[in-house]
């Protein structure tokens, strides 16, 4: 079996595109993967296309050999776009390898370890606040405009059966809600400072949310790269009295992240922006995180499983970084079925109603739980006719 060609497809994901890679072979088997085309990766399709000549003619079942060769050719610029492109290719090859063996992907890695995975609602309310018109007018979802809207949102979490929900810090002002994330917002504060008003706003939002949940579901707070190390420590201390499943904080420095962890009794989740075991290992040695978040689309399924095994040696559970589209949900569930130290799966509770129409068969998500796929490969293919119905960019 040999790879013939690679082709990218993009579908309307509402406030972002859903991007997919298709690999065709000379024996008729087709492999699919999903990748993330965001502001952080604006030329990713072009990088994938540039790597195509290095994989055409290869046997996709030898996906580790393909990945090793691609990494060797990009070693002078490892990580970043190159690694994300390699991972998209590897993941599509893994889909083919599983189909050739007539098994689900998780069976290639010794699964299934479990039959279903718990979900948490990610970015809970965040996009309703940021993109009010789209969510209210197009999706018919209630807005999040004021602190008084936070409690009804928590009730929605409970009613929909989610085991946990993750919010981003929001400052509700007279001019409307404002996401508090200067680390991702150029021009707001490049020094990523934390002022008293922002600290009070974070505490008020989180206190309202946890009080409304009343122990029926767990709360998480995601701070991303939003603040300096000192600012993160201030927030950790300020919200220490609130019941949280975890605080999520990103840092490229294991010593800094370990310092933050030492200053909070709340479990700390991190590492979603870390590529590969070589970068991952120092964070484990520094004991910088209680939960290791691993991005399957950026690392590839093979490396993600090896990273999870490494975390397991350090007594650390893992969770997939998964704020993507329909195929990524299947990929994350396969990951959850492949590793023993799986914590919980990130899931976009607010999404476009046609999300799973893009798949060849539906996903049985129900009340905060996703069943592990039983079909071959990832469990479903991408429906190219559906993509044509929901193109990106929009017509």
From TrEMBL:
Keywords: Lyase. Residues 147-267 form the Mandelate racemase/muconate lactonizing enzyme C-terminal domain. The keyword Lyase applies. It comes from the Bacteria. One of its GO terms (molecular function) is lyase activity. This is Mandelate racemase/muconate lactonizing enzyme family protein. The lineage of its organism: Bacteria, Pseudomonadati, Pseudomonadota, Alphaproteobacteria, Sphingomonadales.
């Amino acid at each position: 079996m040999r790879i013939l060609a690679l082709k990218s497809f993009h579908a309307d994901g509402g406030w972002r595109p859903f991007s997919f890679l298709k690999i065709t072979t000379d024996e008729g088997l087709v492999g699919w993967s999903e990748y993330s085309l965001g502001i952080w990766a604006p030329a990713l399709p072009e990088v994938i296309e540039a790597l195509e000549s290095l994989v055409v003619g290869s046997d996709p079942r030898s996906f580790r050999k393909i990945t090793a060769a691609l990494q060797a050719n990009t070693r002078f610029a490892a990580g970043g776009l190159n690694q994300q492109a390699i991972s998209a290719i590897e993941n599509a090859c893994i889909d083919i390898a599983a189909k050739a063996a007539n098994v689900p992907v998780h069976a290639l890695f010794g699964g299934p370890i479990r039959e279903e995975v718990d979900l948490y609602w990610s970015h809970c309310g965040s996009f309703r606040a940021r993109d009010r018109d789209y969510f209210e007018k197009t999706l018919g979802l209630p807005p999040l405009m004021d602190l008084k809207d936070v409690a009804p949102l928590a009730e929605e979490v409970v009613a929909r059966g989610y085991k946990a929900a993750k919010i981003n810090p929001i400052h509700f002002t007279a001019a409307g809600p404002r996401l508090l994330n200067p680390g991702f917002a150029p021009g707001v504060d490049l020094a990523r400072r934390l002022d008293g008003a922002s600290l009070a706003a974070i505490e008020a939002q989180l206190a309202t949310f946890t009080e409304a949940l009343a122990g029926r579901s767990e709360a998480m707070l995601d701070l991303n790269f939003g603040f300096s190390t000192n600012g993160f420590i201030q927030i950790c201390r300020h919200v220490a009295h609130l019941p949280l499943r975890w605080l999520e904080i990103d840092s490229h420095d294991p010593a800094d992240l370990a310092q933050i962890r030492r200053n909070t009794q709340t479990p700390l989740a991190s590492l979603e922006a870390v590529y590969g075991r070589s970068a991952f290992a120092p964070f484990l040695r520094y004991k910088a995180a209680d939960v290791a978040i691993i991005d399957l689309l950026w690392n590839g399924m093979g490396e993600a499983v090896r990273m999870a095994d490494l975390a397991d040696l350090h007594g650390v559970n893992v969770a997939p970084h998964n704020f993507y589209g329909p195929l990524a949900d299947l990929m994350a569930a396969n990951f959850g079925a492949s590793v023993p130290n799986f914590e919980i799966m990130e899931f976009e509770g607010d999404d476009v109603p046609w999300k799973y129409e893009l798949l060849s068969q539906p996903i049985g998500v129900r009340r905060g739980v996703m069943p592990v796929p039983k079909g071959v490969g990832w469990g479903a293919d991408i429906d190219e006719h559906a993509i044509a119905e929901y193109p990106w960019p929009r017509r």
